[in-house]
Amino acid sequence: MFYYLLKYVLLGPLLRLLFRPRIEGLENVPETGPAIIAGNHLSFSDHFLMPAILKRRITFLAKAEYFTGPGVKGRLTAFFFRSAGQIPVDRSGKEAGQAAIREGLGVLDKGELLGIYPEGTRSHDGRLYKGKVGVAVMALRAGVPVIPCAMIGTFEAQPPGKTLPRIRPVTIRFGEPLDFARFAGMEQQKAVLRAVTDEIMYAILTLSEQEYVDQYAAVAKAERPTERSAREHGVPRAPLG
């Protein structure tokens, strides 16, 4: 109930006023039945903009840290994310990936829309990074279509580290559904999962027109302090292998 209060009364109208989102390809999102919407992830506000413009409810897998903050602020944040249709996923440890897949399949089993950011984290520089194969596992196991989605302009509106967004228009663009029925029963094959994931990322790239980096975003983020320290000490950066 609170999800729809946020969507139609409290948060949705405010987001539409601030960002004036231009929606393209909304007809590609099925009106009924389970499906995965896989998008790029540029801003904290992405979590809320897409639910605000979709006619159907969508559930996202969100990092568990949003739900475990201390004190009153932490409890309020957790309540807000749960109310907005977010499911906490622990991204640490060996079982993290499997837990995310189980949660995602549970959403799809109920015939609902599941929102996924295949990059696994927000882009720190506005570029599109290599996708993780969890989206392919869920698509093949559930036998559902994947709708690629591009958020355009949200990085400029609210880049990482900026608490309050800038008031500026954004575009949310949906592509044609991707059907992976030809790979049914092959979700144990690593080469198939990589191929499916890369096809999804290419579709997102085509919609977003971002620069693509064939590296996981988390790895790229982790390298940044090392690179900065090396530059400060005059040490050249070693090429990636």
Q: Could you describe the 3D structure shown?
A:
- By secondary structure, the protein is an alpha/beta fold.
- The chain has a single domain, classed as Glycerol-3-phosphate (1)-acyltransferase (3-Layer(aba) Sandwich), CATH 3.40.1130.
- 41% of the residues lie in helices and 15% in strands.
- The chain is built from nine helices and nine strands.
- The protein has helices spanning 2-10, 12-19, 46-53, 71-83, 96-109, 134-142, 154-157, 190-208, 217-232, and strands at residues 22-24, 35-39, 58-63, 86-89, 113-116, 128-129, 146-152, 171-174, 212-213.
- The strands form two sheets. The chain has a seven-stranded mixed β-sheet, with helices on both faces.
- It is globular and about 45 Å long.
- 35% of the residues are buried.
- Total number of strands: 9
Strand line-up of the largest beta sheet: 1-8-7-2-5-3-4
For this entry, what is the oligomeric state of its chains? Answer: single chain
Please count the helical segments.
Answer: 9
Q: What is the correct CATH architecture?
A: 3-Layer(aba) Sandwich
Largest sheet: 7 strands, mixed
CATH third-level topology: Glycerol-3-phosphate (1)-acyltransferase
Provide keyphrases for this structure.
241 residues; alpha/beta; Glycerol-3-phosphate (1)-acyltransferase; seven-stranded mixed sheet; 9 strands; 15% strand; disordered C terminus; 1-acyl-sn-glycerol-3-phosphate acyltransferase; acyltransferase; Plipid/glycerol_acylTrfase
Summarize the structure.
With 241 residues, the chain is α/β, with parallel strands linked by helices. 41% of the residues lie in helices and 15% in strands.
